[in-house]
Amino acid sequence: MKVRLGLAAVWIAAVAGTACDSQTSTSYGQAPGASAGKVRIALFNIRELRTEKILDVDVEGRGRHPQALAAARIIRRIRPDILVLNEIDHDYGADSSDLDLNARRFRDAYLAGGDDGLDLPHSYAAANNTGILSGLDLDGDGRAATDTDRGERAHGNDSWGYGSYPGEYSMAVLSRFPIRAAEARTFQKLRWLELPGNHLPRGHFAPDVEDGLRLSSKSHWDLPIEVGGGLLHLFVSHPTPQGFDGPEDKNGRRNFDEIKLWVEYLDAGEALVDDRGSTGGYASLSPFVVIGDLNAAPLNPERSDDGPFRTSVYDGMAAIDQLLRHPRIQDSGPFAVSSGGLVHNAELPRTPGPPAYPERSTSVFGDGARIDYILPSRDLEILAGGVFWPTAEENPEEAGWADEASDHRLVWLDLGLD
To answer: What angle, 0 to 180 degrees and rounded to 10, lies between the N-to-C axes of helices 66-78 and 396-405?
Structure first.
């Protein structure tokens, strides 16, 4: 095993260049910042980062929940300038108009303070569909769920996006740099039928559901951030997982089309209508980054797709290939690697590189799968990156953090600025 890990580390260093820092214990360095001509962006799906976990603090207001602490240690180690969080609650019980409240709470209790505290003064969150009741019988069980079903699966099944209560599995952004929230575009309410070339399973849903069903299981955000004298747009989303359905493949189809929305947005998108009623796609000349737990893995010939995390194929491609093959997007896969992902749950030695690229895994599902992405536009230079997934042999303490924090692994990139 130790020999195999050693060979894996050599291989990763060879193909990823400076990205190999993420595999060598604590050699991540300080956050570079825009003043150094680069910006560090991180994505972390922290498993079920619920309000009660965030509010678990000591008498001085310092976070103490074990899982949240582990995630915070990883984030402090990586030191991003911009951090996108998936699966963080929106606390509707506190203030339904202050949706980034939990992001600020997490920052203040877990990320700020101390010798290695992070300065991320700007935050953003907008409404998500998770746990928001539709008033329709989406799952076809003969009744539309109501507030009396809160906390139950029935509530989630009849919500626009699955959530057993409003705000579960939501999203948020923290940033060192100013966020132009007033200029953000969101597509929470776009109906599935309104997406050109959609793959909604015709006849599976009742007519009123088919007509009203929203495309986004959470939301889609185009969020401009002031970085290095210009703007960097984040395209943030968290599509529904593929699988967990029947032969109609409604979740696989929805995942495909949630990713397809970004393709339409980049390719003019004249039919797209955002939540403010504005039409059209991405008209800015500023660079962008597609970022989020996209719940879509490249086709893997070494993995069976019969399970709940199957890879659905439409229009002759896997869902994620819509982005990986897009002419305006570059694949960060050669940078976003780890030796932990390479050896995860592998009974026999696995070969790095094609066709399966196990070293690019970002989640523990099965033998590991690449489902979390930071994909920059081609006018940005990728300088370095990685997946925070050290092996126990490399760094047992940090490997323990990764296991405690989530069933996903933090992904980060350093991007060059003009």
So the answer is: 120
